[in-house]
Amino acid sequence: MHNWSLIFRRNSPRANIGDDKVKSSGSPKRRETLPLSYSREGITSPAGRSRVTRSELRWSNEDRRAASSRQDELKLTSSTFALTGDSAHNQAMVHWSGQNSSVILMLTKLFDFNLNSVTESSLWRSTDYGTTYQKLNEKVGAKTILSYLYVSPNNKRKIMLLTDPEVESSLLISSDEGATYQKYRHSFYILSLLFHPEQEDWILAYSHDQKLYSSVEFGRRWQLVHERVAPNRFYWSKTGLDKEPGLIHLETIISEGQALYVTCKLQNCTEANKGKPFPGYIDPNSLVVQDEYVFVQVSTGGRPIYYVSAKREVFTPMKLPKYTLPKDLHVISTDENRVVAAVQEWNQNDTYNLYVSETGGVFYTLALENVVSSMGHEGNVMIDLYEVAGIKGMFLANKKTDNVVKTYITYNRGRDWRLLQAPTADLRGNSIRCELPYCSLHLHLHVSANPYTSGNIESKDSAPGIIVASGSIGAELTTSNVSMFITSDAGNTWRQIFDEEYSVLYLDQGGALVAIRHTPLPIRHLWMSFDEGRQWNKYSFTMSPLFVDGLLGEPGEETLIMTIFGHVSHRSEWQLVKIDFRSIFNRRCTEGDYQTWHLHNRGEPCIMGVKRIYRKLKPIARCVMGKTYSVTMTSAPCDCTEADFECDYGYERRSDGKCTPAFWFLPSSMSRSCTTGTTFINSTGYRKVVSNNCTAGVIAEYTARRQHCPTQAPKGLHLVTSEGKLTATLGTNVTFLVFLEEGDGARTSIMVDFGDGHALTYSNVSSIEDGVKHVYKAVGIYRVSATGENRLGSESVVLYLHVTCQLEYIHLSAPFVAVKSKEVNLTAVLWPSQVGTVTYIWWFGNNTEPIITLEGSVACTFSREGVNTVTVQVSAGNAILQDRKTIAVHEYFRSHLLAFSSNLDDHNPDVAEWRLDVSRVIKNSMVKLSEILLSALNQNLVQFTLRPGVQVTVYAAHLSAAPLVDTSENHSGSAMLMLLSVVVLGLAIFVVYKFKRYIDLSEMLNYFRPPWYSSV
């Protein structure tokens, strides 16, 4: 049984309810309720088309005769119920549980698109298949605003309602199909839920702050699993593949460009219990866990590398044809133990190429080029590929060639494709001249966003061979002159059934079809066919015309009850019209009502290696097949022919159908299996199409043989870091991954030289599948090499790894005073001193153009007197630090070395600002004595008050006459040794005081001590 739920909207644009490198286009739906979009006037197709012109339905001549014999209008058994008081509500969610249950739940709400929240809601419940409804607002709380409805996929009696988080964060839980509820508060804002595929009470909840929670009590209690989890990148374990049912696969966010693939236990996700199946970082939003496969993406040098793990084994790079350079990849399907992937290559913009793999998901061959793609309403990529239900191996695809889109069909999983033969006559019975390949039938392949409403194309497992779709006839697919077409023989022949778009639903497992017109106008009729669309009867389902907003059928393929949701006017309440089709069937079907149908492709009965015979209802039978009916099918294997085999990896199909090696592929390389074992598959250039069940015939000629690997020299050695980067941080583990494309991996030793005097040797490749770890203890650029060697030869590969550490501090060493037009040396001192590759950017005064150097020192001159500012910026990795100094430039000055009384040390706080304040005090004390300054210094007459009671005496460092600093060209003395400068234009005091205190990091003194600082 299926859970039937849908959401539809009225009088509003399409809204996003909740929140999906390697991407999955075929992953299971994360919610039981899915969106259906429609316009204010009525239903619109998924392609967004709606017709406003009135048109008359055209039938064939036989249909006209059948219709003309009817005098009275045919009526259906129906009842209408109005949801009183909800006229302002513009969204509705419906759940019809099935399982022989007559209960229907409906949540209507008013969604304010300006506030982006729900402001009103009502909950309705029916226990008679939708004849009447009861309003349950009082049971859930009159003031409670509900925003979403969830249903356990394993027990449809268990219902969960989410309150609007803007008002309160609560869950309302029911275990009796919504009859009674219990409210539970939670402390986080739920964005999405993921139910366990088997355990009915196990749920994962994703919050708005990227946290993942789990519950094993159907939401009554929650436990934090992990923080910083990527949205929609968490998955339940799969029975038979994972070690335990409570395992969770998730992608955690490390930084903007890095993520990790982690596995966690449901109730114990600690660091000790975490698994890391992939050794290294992956690209963000790239984890896909689907059936037995796991996919991740790692970008190296701007180019993505895609990895796959089959049956939870070691990850292996996916092998696309050599010169396929993908810029985007989507996993379309993982059914039948093989992968179908859509790859957008370097020269494609709006199309993708389809590739298919063998069972391991590693080696891919081209199935179809230039398949059309489009963007979905939520920004997701939609590929125009449709898998036909009920017929294994049958697909339809829209291919773009020379800007023309045409529809193709395959019966053998993409091995062969052909155009669709157009109908031979139109609705009027006029002949249609449409000759292949210049003219054919083309179909729109968009599937409805909700599985319980009709899209552009429909097929059912219970009705094999019947496909209903909208499309056009001609040289290409168009969006104008769209009609409805049907095939009842699996695409061999097609008939036109309507000249406008209709929603078509299957009743009674395909025994009858119901069609409702896509129109913005109110309607009161629908159409029914009991003979696979050959003849249609018109029925009225209501007395007053209704604007139709959505449809919902009874759960299960045996649908006989349908509900139409609509409104009489744009401001009226919801009108729910229940239609019971059981009254138009007069009896149960018997064996005499069935006939056999042989599946074929243009007369060829062997499809996917077997002949299949189905049981179908006769066109003249009008009876109910019921819930006990099953599609009885007999099958018999066919002898294998060349058509049962596709080209193997590295081979391409020629115009004569033969598979030959591509120009880049050497069949003798044996690269696919000899790296890990002692045998390999010696390909014939062909491989059997996956799920093909043919036997005997040419199977021995085309099947690859397993042979012992001859020992060969290693070839294709790869060395990369697990993060795909060429940088590493000092003191952290660096993981190197080594891959060998060709050679006997079991007998090839691998030596990894880390470039810092350390090296490791391994006996074979398989012993380092998890990578080789190493920690660097010094900054630098290291030449890392790996060498593979056996008795037949060797091969080496090299990478250069930049080991860096974080720059923490920069000090600009510069003189306080300089002579005009005389060279001055400036030095940037770093801590730590070795941080890797560093760029220095120097700014002088008001210059707008900096000087950029790779050295930490620069010489400069100042051409004008005054105070000049020098700024240096240092760029190291992702850090940029700067320091700034001011230099007084004078044409002439004299300097003298000063000393201070010892009591100054007792009051030194060891900060730079203190030295500046002291220099200002000294200047104020000395300015009055400028003319007799040196004499006063020698006589200890210069004093200043540091603080009350603390008098500091300034005296000359040498009691002899103060030395003069000669500013002429001939003097070799250093002006950088002054503490006191006497200049022509005035007096300037610069204090450079040697601190007698020491800090814990004694090395800091060496880095920050200026070059003019002498030791005492």
UniProtKB/TrEMBL annotation:
Main location group: membrane
GO biological process: post-Golgi vesicle-mediated transport
Spans traversing the lipid bilayer: 975-995
Protein name stated in the entry: PKD domain-containing protein
Organism of origin: Oncorhynchus mykiss (Rainbow trout)
Assigned keywords, A-Z: Glycoprotein, Membrane, Repeat, Signal, Transmembrane, Transmembrane helix
Disordered: annotated span: 15-71
Cellular component terms per the entry's GO annotation: Golgi apparatus; membrane
Compositional bias annotation for Basic and acidic residues: 17-33, 53-71
Compartment(s) where it occurs, according to its Swiss-Prot or TrEMBL record: Membrane
High-level lineage: Eukaryota, Metazoa, Chordata, Craniata, Vertebrata
Homology family: Belongs to the VPS10-related sortilin family. SORCS subfamily.
PANTHER family xref list: SORTILIN RELATED, VPS10 DOMAIN-CONTAINING RECEPTOR SORCS1
Coiled coil ranges: none
Membrane protein topology class: Single-pass type I membrane protein
Pfam family, one: Sortilin-Vps10
Residues in PKD domain copies: 737-794
